[in-house]
Amino acid sequence: MKADSTVPKSIARSVRDSVTRLLALVGVEPDGKHGARGEMMQGLGREPRAAEAFPRTDGRRPASRFRAPDIVFEVEAEFDWDACLPPRARTRRWRMQQRLKRGIDLVFAFLSLVVLAPVFAVSALLVKIGSRGPVIYRWRAMGRGGRPFVSYKFRTMVENADELKAELLPLNEMRGPVFKIRNDPRITPVGRWLRRFSIDELPQLWSVLKGDMSLVGPRPPFPEEFAQFESWQWAKLAVTPGMTCLWQINGRNEIRDFDEWVALDLEYICDWSLWLDFKILLKTIPAVLNGRGAW
């Protein structure tokens, strides 16, 4: 799937211009043999992975509590994220609706944390009894504007799951930078049940309360995944990431091509409204209950 056939032209042009400025910043010639020009300069088609196209040139990296790829810090500092939003994002109505969206997030997250306290308690007990390791899995994610943050899930895998990932990479069933396999041997019996109904993601309500995430928005990537994004895919981080999104209600992991996943995210950004958020939240309920793509 060609990026320029899926991404709205205004977003594609804005992202391309920001990428060109980044190239100049880090000293990579757009028309050099590094592959930074190529199809990207012809409409944001496929180009070499970001980690290859944007090396650090000064030998240093900004201080951070995350061990994220260097491209993460370059993009966070210099990328024109607002240019990736639709023109109406500059209107007063958009800003007011965004404030209202944040208010809804706060109220819903707080009430959910209170009401679902028994579910949290039972889930935590099952995770603790089911396998050795912490109850909560702290994972590093990329937020709005490329800002790294820590989010939380109930642990659904064995304690050394991250170390085992390298051995399983050849089994990846996704096309693109994300890693997912249907019968992941690292998942515990309790974890498989928690994933089946997305209960493992409930602790992300705390991230919503803090403002790192929203109820609805593109799913946040790992820094290592973001380092492999193609330039047009960066635009998905122009808004606050969410717990549910168009990808979630359209099959989740049944969508194997990451390009299609990001296309849905950009569709959400272009068409965003409070009504769209409400419809996605409603459709999330049956999507979670039937468990389609939940693996």
Structure overview:
With 295 residues, the chain is mostly helical. The chain has 12 helices and 4 strands. It has a two-stranded antiparallel ribbon with strand order 1-2. A two-stranded parallel ribbon has the order 3-4. The longest helix has 24 residues, at 92-115. It is globular, with a radius of gyration of 19 Å. Mean pLDDT is 79; it is low at 1-6 and 22-68.
Give a concise summary.
By secondary structure, the protein is mostly helical. The chain is 44% helix and 7% strand.
Number-wise, the strands total 4
Q: Characterize the overall form.
A: globular
Q: Spell out the helices and strands N to C.
A: HHHHHEEHHHEHEHHH
Helix content: 40-55%
Treating each run of at least 4 consecutive H or I residues as one helix, how many helices? 12
Low-confidence residue ranges:
1-6, 22-68
Overall average pLDDT: 79
Could you give a short account of the major beta sheet? 2 strands, antiparallel
The proportion of strand residues reads 5-15%
Whole-number count of domains: 1
Q: Determine the structural class based on helices, strands and strand pairing.
A: mainly alpha
Distance between the termini: 25 Å
Query: Rg, please?
Result: 19 Å
User: How are the strands ordered across the major sheet?
Assistant: 1-2
Structural features:
4 strands; mainly alpha; two-stranded antiparallel ribbon; globular; 295 residues; 12 helices; two-stranded parallel ribbon; disordered N terminus
